[in-house]
Every structure is written in structure tokens, then in C-alpha cells.
Amino acid sequence: MALFDPPEHLSCHHYATHANSGWLRVDAADQSTYRGITEFHAILFCTRGSVRLAIADELWELHEGQMKFIPRGTSMTAIFSGDGELLDAYFDVVDFICDKISLQQLQQLRQEVAYAPEPLEVRGAIHSLLGTLAIYLNDQALCAYLHELKIKELFWNLRAYYSREELAAFLWPILGESKFHNDVISAFTCNARVSELAERVYMSTSAFYKRFREEFGTSPEQWIRMQSNKQILFLIQDYDLSIGEIASQLSFNSQSTFSRYCSKNFGLSPSNLRRTLQEGTSSEELLLRSSDND
């Protein structure tokens, strides 16, 4: 059944607007791969078939009825089986909307639980929530308010059907992160200057240097370079993208600027870097080579 009076929905300024939380439905009929929204945290739900997830340097198989947490800023590619389907719940802030539990309380369990990167089985009313969302998304119900409410409903259900220990293990990658840490991750762009990053988090460059070393244990320059190199190695393996498209996506001013960066950091042009990966050299080995150039 379609939405009643679609023009009225379309005329609302909350319809299909960019928001800090929401839901996306992706399946093999739409596209064979999906890269997610890296500026937000996400929980991926496999609602049909199976999906292979390449997350940073790890591979996971997500089956129907399972979910996987993806921290903000993580390079991720989902590769669909013939009938695979995902619901992507993306959000900026973890809020259980419950006085009895908070992310801060889970942080206290970080030392007591082991990180469990394996997909978690969906339980309880989350099944019904996902079914309702599939109907909304199929009917193009793209109201930002509705999507925000459904994210809150998801977190209420996580609180209701999982123990604190399970949630701490599931959300382990972001437990203990400070606001500064999250702000830096959100503000990062490939090959950014330290002064640009400091400005984006509303700090002087000198104060940013001091706080960054305390938080990340390395210099901003080294961290920016390593994160930039990881993003390049991730996108260069997407053979549907041209070198020029990759340079544009990574905010380089021109393809020639991108080529100079790759030659300086990897000792290879972008085309040769892609060929080297195709011939079997791993991303990890190339990252080690780039760090040797420090």
C-alpha cells in the first residue's frame, strides 16, 4: 500500500532531509556492493539471505537474523549474495532512552568484557521493528522524524533484550572514546592539514597538538597520513571507480595532486598501486611500506 497523498509528504521540509540518524534499505537488486555512511555509527541488519562484509582488513559473513556494529569512520564494503538484503541503521549518538542504562555505564564494563566482533543474533521485538521499517522504506516513508523515532525504538529494544555485558561487547570499539576523539574522527578528511582539523573541532593548533597526543598517542601528522593511506587503499580496490573519481571522493584538488601523494607515500602511481594490489600484495604490506617512508 502506498502513502496517502504523497505530494503532502513531499512538500514537508522534514521529508528526505539529511539527518544525524536514519534507516536505509539496500539489496542485491539495487546494487551488488554497498559502502555505508562512514560519518555515522551504524548497525547493519541482514534481513534476507547473506551479505559478506569487508570491514577494514577483516571479512565477516552476515546471515539473515544477524546484526553487526560498524563504528564511525570505518571503511566497510558489503557484498550481497543473490537475494541478500540489508537494513542500515545509522546514528550519531548512542542513546538508550532509559535512566537505567547509558553508554557511560557500559564504559565501566570495558575492562570486564572481551571484544566480540562476531555478528550478534537479532532478538525479541527487533524482528517486528525491522519488518515495519521494511514496509516504511518500500513505501518511501522518508520523514526524518519517523526515522529518528525508529532509531530510538531500536535502542530501547537493545536495552530490553540484551544484557549490559552483551551490549558492552557489541559496542566495545566506541566505549571509552571522548568527545574530542569522536569530533576528530568526524572532522577528518583525506590529506587534511593539522590546522584544518584543529579549526574543524574549534581549537587552536597548539591546543589541538597537545590534546591529540594525549588522546591518540601519536602526532596528528602521522595519524592523518595513516588514515589517508588506509582510505586510499580501500577505494583503489573498487575497480568500478576511475582514478579521477577516487581523487575527487578523497578531496584531492586534482588527479595530479593525488598521483603525487601516492608516489610520495607508496612509491607507486595510483594505477601501479591498483595493479600491485591486484597481483596479490596485501593492504597491510603496503601500509607498512608507507610507514617506512616517515
Automatic annotation (TrEMBL):
GO MF: DNA-binding transcription factor activity; sequence-specific DNA binding
Keyword DNA-binding: yes
HTH araC/xylS-type domain ranges (all copies): 178-276
Entries under InterPro entries matching the protein: Homeodomain-like_sf, HTH_AraC
Superkingdom of origin organism: Bacteria
PANTHER family: ARAC-FAMILY TRANSCRIPTIONAL REGULATOR, REGULATORY PROTEIN POCR
Ranges in coiled-coil conformation: none
The protein's name in its UniProt record: Transcriptional regulator, AraC family
Pfam (any one): HTH_18
Keywords associated with the record: DNA-binding, Transcription, Transcription regulation
